[in-house]
Amino acid sequence: MRLRMNYNIRYERDLSHNYMVVGLGDIDTGDYRYKMLEAQKTKGLMACSLRNINSDSFLYYEADGLRSIADRFASKKMNYSQLMDFFTDLEKTCIDMAEYLLEEDSLVMTMDTVMVDLARGSFRFMCLPGDNREDIETFAMELTDIVDHNDEKAVNAAYEFCMLVEENGYNLSVIARMMRDKMAQSLETVSQVEGQQPVEHIADRSAVQATPSPDFYEDFDETEEEDTSSKGKSKDNDMKSYYIFSILSIIIGLLGIAIRYRYPLTPRQNIISLSIIGVTFTMGIAALIYVSNKRKTLEMQEIDDNIRSEISLVKKRKEAEKKNSALTNKNEYRKKKRRSKSYEDDDFDIDEEIGNGFGRACEKGGSSAFGPANLAFARSDEKAFGAAAPSVLMPNLQMFASRKADTYAHASAPKDPGTTVLSDSPVKEQGRLYSRGLNNCIQISTDKLPLTIGKMEGCVDFVIPHKTISRIHARLFRENGNMFLIDLGSTNGTYHNGCRLQAQKPVRIVPGDEVRFSDIVFDYR
């Protein structure tokens, strides 16, 4: 069980409910805050009731259908959208608490007391009147452990939460609102670029450019830049022509107004002048509106083109890096192959030619005939080969002589098998859980631990699709070479050798034990 909190907390269950029980000791529970908690006015808080037992006070928090975020995200880590939901629910809860005069300091922010409603996916918080400020910094650091590290945005948001906690302290509503706004803005930015590939790792562009690949610059096609520049020039010319047309239209309209006031006109001329003025002004204003809209469209297209170009640059650089790495690996492989081949030509060919002679000499003269101290044969071979012998020949002969001498020496010596010393570390118990009494036998392997068991797909490691199994039922884990079983607050319970386990209390299991999840019995062997 995780003991990361300094609260007197335990888990209990009656006939139909699971509870997290917090002992208050002899604290005065007449405070209005305890009355507000019992009234259950704030939706984001865990429902609780105050009970007095033997002159001691206890808060019973209902935990039906709830799991701590440590248990919920033990198998499948928290992604970006779930992290955003967490900050949204935290902000709403803090706002609701302020309406009922409950301080944010009374929220117990630990990995075991921040809960997830498995049915709705919402987050629930434990409120314990008092100052719990020391929890938030530890909680912020532990939150980075349960975030999906393959989701770069989620990891960045989690570390930014840690920085905001260090800067703003325990002002949770402000921190949650800042995080929610930033994450919502990033989602809006992604939705605006919908249909395109997400631009990840663009911040690392300078690092990529610091080590450019020559293949990339060789494969780069400069005609693309020429095409884009020519398109940009044609668009600028179109914009200028529209501007000129709108200005000329407005000038013609103004000239028509001046002529009307300067010269007397017949009724027919009056109608013609008014129509000309209206048409020219309308065309000029329409041209201006079109130009402004066109400019905005071009700006958006330019942004999209920049994003596409950044993506293509990153892709090309990655492809070039892969090509270079493949070439370097291929060259290294060739070098190693040449070295091994030269070694075989220089060494093992000699072994094949003179191996039989060494063996016969060793059989006759014993192990000292060709030992390190007696290299007469090597010297005679040196004379036989003459000055044309390669420089590597003598070391190889000496090495071969010593190797053969050691081989025959070990062959003639009596064999001592010795004694194998066992280590003091406990032996890992590798086994399986086999179901009993079912038509189809269920086998749960314990090779990969920790292993979370339940019926909620996507949240557990092993799914048992049975009505009596809880969504997140129990967990198997290994510690110091021993395997343990822990119940995670299941509705119908987890049993070990017939005894029901208390929630969050681990028990060791060994081969031969009986394990029962609800009404499904397993044998561990």
Automatic annotation (TrEMBL):
Residue numbers spanned by region Disordered: 212-234, 322-344
Claim: Mitochondrion is one of the keywords in the record: no
Sorted UniProt keywords: Membrane, Transmembrane, Transmembrane helix
Transmembrane parts of this sequence: 241-259, 271-291
Compositional bias ranges of the Acidic residues kind: 216-227
Coiled-coil portions: none
Any single Pfam family the record assigns to this protein: DUF6382
Stretches assigned to the FHA domain: 451-501
Keyword Isomerase attached: no
Cleavable signal peptide: none
Name of the protein this chain belongs to: FHA domain-containing protein
Organism, scientific name: Butyrivibrio fibrisolvens
The organism's taxonomic lineage, starting at the top: Bacteria, Bacillati, Bacillota, Clostridia, Lachnospirales
